[in-house]
């Protein structure tokens, strides 16, 4: 959703033009998260005949980042702002907004301000749930509001607290004390960065629920990656020039530095004089009357980003989604690397998942296993449910996170709850995780993001290692999630002798899977030709059952996400209970009918749809075209055969390609579809 980026240079001279371009580029790296407006704030020029710190400059614009860039340079030209002016220390903030409160418009864009003099500025990712109460209180105190956002209460609350401390004669109040007092009044999820003319060249970052990282680049040969944040090392400015970055996503940091701190919930990071001071928010500590509480500092260690700049570039491809579809043979190989054990002549084949091996006995004793996810992650869990039930013998249910929360579905201490999320920051899934932890369940995380909230807060888990996924419509993460959950099923069922042959067949299938995906990617041109036939259609149905009910749901989701065509994934067994009424000679229908236990039933479905003159597109196993195509009247997509539980990985690829080509041919934005965001960090 919203993207946050900030840059502070210390003891290294940077021109205003350089700072602007660095902020713009940071926002470009966050575009994939989804947004409808953008804004930045930088320092204005100091006047020689005035000691007061001038108000920061704020630029906000509806539309894409290039609209913001154009607007900024137009304003610069009109005002004569000197872009060549250099600063040895400067703090700039930037933001991409995905509208939740108020329409996309400059007044609702961030940074949001406390007053016309921009005494306090804030960029925000998340939702403040009690903003109306705070707004009413501030209006009674004489504040006026310009926007419809929930964010505007934050800088105004900061100004209110600051003004009150000055009236009480406390001139020593620090920026971090102001922010900690603001946090005490906020409810909801947020990641915030504060900038203030009262605290020039300082930034404050804090978070609760939404992701935020600090990147550190020390411009000296002596800088070491293993530095800790303590009084003798990083916290002291040590006279070394530094560049400090704040971002809601590592993709905006990796080209500058790999040394990062993942800011934890309730932490406040104060950047000042080349130092990063870290404080822990304690709501109870600030509730006493009198002066603002002085927080206790904490020590944290830097970690190293496991990401390369090449991963966030398109390379030879036109779009990220196209690149990520074609990366799947490599991403699946990476997902399985070091986890599949062939075994020798006397040893059976097995799976090693280091992140859960210490909890396998507990999982095997579970009363039930509950998968919890949203969107594509939910579909991946649905695809993996049958094999987990088969190999574990444990009842398995799949829950949409928001629905579980809405009805407060029962979660027991004897349950294993598995949370599936590409980003590891999905708001509904995180709330469901809190709910499951409160109820005492063993919580397992399956994410693509090391250090994400789900990875940190679950008891154990498995990283899918699919690599950075930029396109909003998930592709390679989906197939890697299915593979990880299949390996999870193999690990859980590893103590059952009766299923050994079945497990070994699946492991052999996993080894062959990347090459099979490479084969199915050769259907690219065929899917483009099919997309040309469907370009003017308004609707598409996709029928699947068994392992491939999830394929139907995910294929339909991809089409509606990016091609903006109504599409519906339908359980084929439910065809006669309503969907059959839609069938005529004009409506395109995809039927997934590859070889598995449900094949004969899908043949019957095809016969019934054909009898009603359905316009059929059938996906079948290579060599089965004559078995599924009644009288040669349907279009056939032939795919390689693999183990039934792995077939959804193969079958989704042609539908991903179809969705991609439909989108391009219809002239829509593939990587940033309308109204959607990559990481859904608000509810």
UniProtKB/TrEMBL annotation:
Residues covered by the Glutamine amidotransferase type-2 domain: 2-274
GO terms (molecular function) for this protein are: carbohydrate derivative binding; glutamine-fructose-6-phosphate transaminase (isomerizing) activity
Q: Which residues are listed as membrane-spanning?
A: none
Q: What domain of life is recorded for the organism?
A: Eukaryota
Any one Gene Ontology biological process term? Answer: UDP-N-acetylglucosamine metabolic process
Q: What Pfam families does the entry give?
A: GATase_6 (PF13522), SIS (PF01380)
The chain positions of domain SIS read: 359-498, 530-673
UniProt cross-references to PROSITE patterns, sorted A to Z = GATASE_TYPE_2, SIS
Keywords (A to Z) from UniProt? Aminotransferase, Glutamine amidotransferase, Repeat, Transferase
The catalysed reaction is: D-fructose 6-phosphate + L-glutamine = D-glucosamine 6-phosphate + L-glutamate
Q: Which InterPro entries match?
A: GATase_2_dom, GFAT_N, GlmS/AgaS_SIS, GlmS/FrlB_SIS, Ntn_hydrolases_N, SIS_dom, SIS_dom_sf
Q: In which pathway does it act?
A: Nucleotide-sugar biosynthesis; UDP-N-acetyl-alpha-D-glucosamine biosynthesis; alpha-D-glucosamine 6-phosphate from D-fructose 6-phosphate: step 1/1
Entry EC number(s): 2.6.1.16
Q: Give the protein's recorded name.
A: glutamine--fructose-6-phosphate transaminase (isomerizing)
Q: What is the lineage of its organism?
A: Eukaryota, Viridiplantae, Streptophyta, Embryophyta, Tracheophyta
- Its gene? LOC105172125
